[in-house]
Amino acid sequence: xxxxxxxxxxxxxxxxxxxxxxxxxxxxxxxxxxxxxxxxxxxxxxxxxxxxxxxxxxxxxxxxxxxxxxxxxxxxxxxxxxxxxxxxxxxxxxxxxxxxxxxxxxxxxxxxxxxxxxxxxxxxxxxxxxxxxxxxxxxxxxxxxxxxxxxxxxxxxxxxxxxxxxxxxxxxxxxxxxxxxxxxxxxxxxxxxxxxxxxxxxxxxxxxxxxxxxxxxxxxxxxxxxxxxxxxxxxxxxxxxxxxxxxxxxxxxxxxxxxxxxxxxxxxxxxxxxxxxxxxxxxxxxxxxxxxxxxxxxxxxxxxxxxxxxxxxxxxxxxxxx
Length: 322
Description:
Layout: H1 18-30, H2 32-42, E1 50-55, H3 62-75, E2 80-86, H4 99-102, E3 112-118, H5 130-139, E4 144-148, H6 159-162, E5 165-170, H7 177-180, E6 191-194, H8 202-215, E7 226-228, H9 237-253, H10 255-284, H11 288-297, H12 303-313
Parallel strand pairs: 1-4, 1-5, 2-3, 2-4, 5-6, 6-7
């Protein structure tokens, strides 16, 4: 991260220096430790910024839905930052950042900033740096931030920690719908979207969602609505946006109850990421991993003996500082 003053991202005329913002995000992705210093100075959490997370299984039409939501926000005169997380190769770490192509409608719109990020091995549907990038975008003056997650199924719940409003997108006809609605991803939705609602099986899917919502009604402060859309034809988008804005108002009116658990989850994820990086950096010094692998391959140790040895290198000390 550069040592000189962080550039002003928002210009006096309300536009954004997109190149400077892109550089800062690249630096956040590539130098996480130093990024913390910059983010500590820039961080703000204004009530006026709504972070909208769009999640759901592959093939549900998340990108098309995101495109429609961006369009409605722009029609309302709002500036929008988009973080689109694509899957990374488990072998090279590279990603096919397709959302840049799918959202090309707004590629030249000065009021829209789009950033694709590879998941880089994260199993929660977001890249490890996504929390930092969203916090940067929340802090720099955009009216709304839209996050589109990888689309990995029930494990894709990290978006809960970073989005104010989670839109779970489902489509009829993807096998056993009830299985897709069980624990995990089902529980994080603030709004359900049944996309491609012109398909057969729409009624069954809506009925299943309503049944599960009814069984869990006592747990909700906000009862998630069910919106039916055909995003490719922009059908149902006005109704969806009405619910998105209503939920944004609900979050502002119930800030402590809604934001506190999200911030707690985010802080836990950020702390775990920081601790993991520090431990792996420590263990990587002096080619310790290579030595352990050599010992295992030579039959001198087994993996469990190595793990016990690693434990001897790490000590966690707690102190009562009260």
